[in-house]
């Protein structure tokens, strides 16, 4: 790998130079998806908002000097017209990268004008993002600063709560667990409440919810528990790879059809527990832009002077988290042509 020495500074690999520049390029990609979705915010049409975000994200991605392969996307080839798993994106001139994306994570939240809808993307070297089928994943996540094994999918929810409270040095009733409000979680919610811990129920948006555990002092969420989308699990793991934090995920492959699809994607151990590094390794880049305002990011604001967006962009190789509030004066750049 060619090295470039900045004057008096440390050696920087060619790869690292590309990596730095790409991180900022990703901001533009999620900004465009978020603005497109935000124009359809609160209109009750999640399909339209989703499609607008997909179109915008794809348009921007295809301008990047990368040869990208979508490994976590909108669905497999015959189910999604664009940004499907396996699709090649970018201008195909640059380095090979794998991409996980969700142009509008929480499409229902966006359609209903509720908090925490985001446009999100992660990028890494080929082979370093888990190629998960679009099935469910059981998840547990806590923030940075805890030893390995504090939480585990092999432990009961109550056990995870006890261990976390002990490690954090607080009483159990000072712990808050975030869980998707679904009938499938009735037993989980009851088990967590039985420990004395609080439960924050969310209707959608578990990528943002997992990221929330990285800053409990601000978000009030100590632990994320429960079953959500596997693609969202890989995206959340990519974020934690950059921010620190512990997470485990296990694919729910409870039908022959789901196991067949998993096998086709190279998964042979159907009950494997994945840690953060099993889902996102190497030099991971991650970006997310708020569509509707949530705990993590403000949503898109439309004003007389232009459009304002809030984005976080991170790199795992340095652990740098940048918050970029962009004021876009030239709003015409957001239109399709
Ligand atoms: C979760 C949630 C997502 O899908 O992953 C959920 O965080 C899981 O699916 O925002 P169900 O809705 O079937 O429970 C979303 O709601 C949409 O991607
Ligand atoms: Mg989506
Ligand atoms: Mg989603």
UniProtKB/TrEMBL annotation:
Which Pfam families would you find in this protein's record? FBPase_glpX
Alphabetized, the UniProt keywords read:
Carbohydrate metabolism, Hydrolase, Manganese, Metal-binding
UniProt: Mn(2+) 1 binding residues? 50, 74
**InterPro entries, sorted:** FBPase_class-2/SBPase
A molecular function (GO) term? metal ion binding
Q: Which SUPFAM superfamilies match?
A: Carbohydrate phosphatase
- Hydrolase as UniProt keyword: yes
* Top-level taxon in the UniProt lineage: Bacteria
Q: What is its cofactor?
A: Mn(2+)
Q: Which reaction is recorded as catalysed by this protein?
A: beta-D-fructose 1,6-bisphosphate + H2O = beta-D-fructose 6-phosphate + phosphate
Q: Which GO terms describe its cellular component?
A: cytosol
State where Mn(2+) 2 binds: 102, 105, 232
One GO BP annotation of this record:
fructose 1,6-bisphosphate metabolic process
Q: Where is the signal peptide?
A: none
Q: Does the keyword Manganese apply?
A: yes
PANTHER family for the chain? FRUCTOSE-1,6-BISPHOSPHATASE 1 CLASS 2-RELATED, FRUCTOSE-1,6-BISPHOSPHATASE CLASS 2
- Which family is it part of? Belongs to the FBPase class 2 family.
What is the recorded name of this protein?
Answer: Fructose-1,6-bisphosphatase
Recorded source organism is Hansschlegelia quercus
């Amino acid at each position: 790998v060619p090295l470039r020495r900045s004057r008096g500074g440390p050696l920087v690999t060619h790869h690292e130079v590309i990596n730095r520049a790409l991180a900022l390029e990703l901001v533009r990609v999620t900004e465009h998806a978020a603005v497109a979705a935000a124009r359809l915010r609160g209109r009750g049409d999640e399909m339209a908002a989703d499609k607008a975000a997909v179109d915008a994200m794809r348009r921007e991605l295809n301008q990047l000097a990368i040869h990208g392969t979508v490994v976590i996307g909108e669905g497999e080839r015959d189910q999604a017209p664009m940004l499907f798993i396996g699709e090649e994106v970018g201008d195909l001139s640059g380095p090979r990268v794998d991409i996980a994306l969700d142009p509008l994570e929480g499409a229902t939240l966006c359609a209903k004008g509720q908090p925490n809808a985001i446009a999100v993307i992660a990028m890494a070297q080929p082979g370093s993002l888990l190629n998960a089928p679009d099935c469910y994943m059981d998840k547990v996540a806590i923030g940075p600063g805890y030893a390995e094994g504090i939480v585990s999918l092999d432990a009961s929810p109550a056990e995870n709560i006890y261990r976390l409270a002990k490690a954090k040095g607080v009483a159990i009733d000072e712990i808050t667990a975030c869980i998707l409000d679904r009938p499938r979680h009735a037993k989980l919610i009851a088990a967590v409440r039985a420990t004395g811990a609080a439960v924050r129920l969310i209707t959608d948006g578990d990528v943002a919810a997992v990221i929330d555990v990285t800053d409990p002092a601000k978000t009030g969420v100590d632990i994320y528990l429960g079953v959500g989308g596997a693609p969202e699990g890989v995206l959340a793991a990519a974020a934690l790879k950059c921010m620190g934090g512990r997470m485990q995920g296990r694919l729910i492959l409870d039908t022959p059809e789901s196991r067949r699809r998993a096998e086709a994607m190279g998964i042979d151990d159907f009950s494997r527990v994945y840690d953060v590094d099993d889902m996102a390794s190497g030099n991971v880049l991650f970006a997310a832009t708020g569509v509707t305002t949530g705990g993590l990011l403000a949503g898109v604001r439309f004003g007389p002077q232009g459009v304002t967006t809030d984005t976080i962009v991170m790199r795992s190789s340095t652990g740098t988290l940048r918050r970029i509030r962009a004021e876009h004066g030239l709003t015409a750049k957001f239109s399709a042509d």
